[in-house]
Design a protein that fits this description.
alpha/beta, six-stranded mixed beta sheet, 23 helices, 24 strands
Length: about 625
């Protein structure tokens, strides 16, 4: 304990001349780990222990007192602290053993020296104090110091550094209201801000808007690349949302790949705000050496039209978001009452689809594929169909996106592959010529299952020759720029299985992935084939795809061929094969088997194949 320039058992004070300090007591005080100070009525530090001297860097003058008053040495203020702030009413109640608790984090603490000399009070507060290590937060306990005659000589103050604890408590409180990954407000904080915005809207008669944003096909990135890459993508998405959101907007991470945006300045600009946020995600993302393309589906609900509280607006925006997904993703939809029924139907359909596989409600139809050079039937494409006892015949464009979103496409896709290969072998066992069986694969299957392993197992189970299986991949699979996808494709090719790129030209078509994956065939999308006879731009695109495929030693097949004029143009441009209603609609296995038997006989095939387009092609060539 310091009593002057060196430790001493007694200390002089202006008020009393001297008071004795027992050597044993001095040793105890000196050993206390927390800073301890005795401060006189003139604000001078009369006594300190080692911890106080080390923490505050105290300097003492020749008479044993600190060279600076406490308010300057500890708080950096030229005048006593109590001159900066008047104690709140009732802070010093009468009576013995008073305990005064000041607000935590009080930047202008009430000075303990203003305690009445006749009171036996203890004051506790939390103060920021200046130390040798910088400003720190201390929990202060201070009580009056009285001499033997009972006179008030100052205070005894013990300070405990609670900076680390306060920081930890602050972090706990912060993460109670914020998302740990992105730092965005969480649902709890958004609800508080919504309540504030609602009160303002009610007072001013304004509106509010809530945007529900869901990142499209996030699982196709997160699953194959890993959670670290998925987290990095989410942080990049948040950066763009923050950059393009309004200053008064609140962005909240609801969970996984879902975000909410509260537009507190009214609903009038909700459409433009949603479009601005959607456009912000157009540019590709560079994540851990991968170039990733992402988009979002946004649902919008408005107060008071779509709900009068947080839960109501959230539910409406959620329903509208699913409507945007159903519209093809990368879209915005405003809530309307009819969507509620659609949401309930979606949930019911998902449950029925989950049961459909076990109930054997799913089956395959097969569409024939013809060689345009010699009109031979060279393959079939397996197409999934669902005949539900409750819903009837459900169109593929309704249940396949649902299967992908729910993950059901993985077991369903495995069943499709097995059934298609089994049927191809069954036709061969009937004595029919071998033909290529084309099966579609979803990006979700690559992301959430061992596709290459599944293909190898199915080939082994069914006995189908690998060269007679063609897997159709969409551009979204190839554009993932993911090592695991590339490895899976290489394994599939190593099995001897053929690869085709489906719907080529409708996405981010790239020569780089055509060269890298070296598929066997490009499939020209029906949207180009439909109008190519009358639309010069579509005709040019079809010609360019065929020429590019030929240059890369790839074959081409056109889908959606419905009339002779289309077939004639495809023959003229050099397309290798085609499928469509002109040649045959998708049909069950029994009907397709009958078609195969007809074409197994050249004489029967000559009569059954619509050859009108051949004459048209010859006529067009002579014109």
């Amino acid at each position: 304990m310091h009593a002057g320039p060196a430790c001493a058992p007694a200390m002089n004070t202006p008020a009393t001349g001297a008071f004795a300090v027992d050597a044993c007591l001095a040793a105890v005080v000196e050993a206390i780990a927390d800073p301890l100070l005795v401060i006189g009525t003139d604000y001078r530090i009369l006594l300190s222990n080692r911890a106080a001297r080390e923490v505050y860097g105290l300097v003492f003058d020749a008479d044993g007192r600190a060279g600076q008053p406490c308010h300057l040495a500890i708080h950096g203020r030229p005048a006593p602290c109590h001159t900066y702030r008047t104690p709140p009413p009732g802070a010093l109640p009468p009576g013995p053993e008073m305990l005064v608790q000041l607000p935590a984090g009080d930047l202008l603490p009430v000075c303990p020296l203003i305690l009445r000399p006749d009171a036996n009070a203890c004051l506790r507060s939390t103060q920021r104090q200046r130390t040798r290590a910088g400003e720190r937060l201390f929990e202060i306990s201070a009580g009056p110091l009285r001499l033997a005659d009972g006179s008030f000589a100052g205070i005894v103050e013990v300070a405990r550094d609670v900076t680390t604890r306060a920081q930890a408590e602050g972090m706990i409180e912060y993460f109670a209201y914020h998302d740990q990954l992105t730092g965005l407000p969480n649902r709890l904080l958004l609800q508080e801000r919504f309540a504030q915005a609602l009160r303002r809207a009610e007072l001013k008669g304004g509106g509010l808007a809530m945007l529900f944003i869901d990142i499209d096909r996030f699982k196709t990135i997160n699953d194959p690349l890993g959670h670290a890459a998925g987290d990095a993508l989410l942080r990049e998405v948040v950066g763009r949302l923050r950059e393009h959101a309004g200053e008064s907007d609140t962005i909240c991470r609801l969970g996984a790949d879902e975000f909410l945006v509260l537009l507190a300045d009214g609903a009038a600009g909700a459409g433009e705000s949603a479009r601005r946020l959607l456009r912000s995600l157009d540019a590709p993302f560079s994540i851990e050496g991968h170039v990733l393309h992402s988009s979002a589906s946004i649902g919008v609900s408005l107060y008071p039209d779509d709900g009068d509280d947080f839960a109501g607006l959230l539910k409406a925006a959620d329903i509208a978001m699913y409507s945007a997904k159903a519209a093809g993703r990368n879209a915005i939809r405003f809530f309307d009452a009819g969507m509620s029924a659609g949401s309930a139907e979606r949930l019911r359909m998902q449950q029925l689809l989950r049961e459909a596989l076990a109930r054997k409600e799913l089956h395959l139809h097969y569409q024939p594929q013809f060689d345009l050079a010699d009109t031979r039937l060279v393959g079939v494409e397996a197409l999934l169909r669902w005949q539900s006892p409750e819903l009837g015949a459900v169109p593929p464009d309704r249940f396949i996106p649902l299967a992908e979103d729910s993950g059901l496409i993985v077991p369903i896709g495995r069943w499709v592959l097995t059934e298609a290969c089994r049927q191809a072998v069954a036709w061969q066992e009937e004595g029919l010529p071998p033909l290529v069986m084309a099966v579609n694969l979803s990006a979700i299957q690559f992301a959430r299952s061992d596709v290459a392993g599944s293909v190898a197992e199915v080939l082994a189970e069914t006995g189908l020759a690998p060269a007679l299986l063609e897997l159709e991949l969409t551009e979204s699979v190839l554009l993932q720029d993911d090592a695991s996808v590339g490895a899976a494709i290489c394994k599939i090719k190593a099995l001897g299985v053929r690869l085709a790129i489906d719907d080529f030209g409708t996405g981010y078509s790239s020569l780089s992935y055509l060269k890298r994956f070296a598929a066997h065939r490009l499939k020209i999308d029906r949207s180009f084939v439909r109008d190519m006879v009358s639309d010069l731009e579509d005709a040019t695109l079809v010609r360019a795809i065929i020429q590019m495929a030929n240059a890369l030693n790839m074959s081409t097949i056109a889908e959606g061929v419905e009339d002779g004029a289309q077939a004639a143009m495809l023959v003229r441009e050099g397309c290798a094969s085609a499928q469509g209603y002109l040649f045959g609609r998708p049909a069950p296995a029994a009907e397709t088997g009958a078609l195969l038997r007809r074409h197994a006989s050249p004489a029967l095939a000559q009569r059954s194949l619509p050859l009108l387009f051949i004459g048209q092609a010859e006529q067009a060539a002579s014109d």
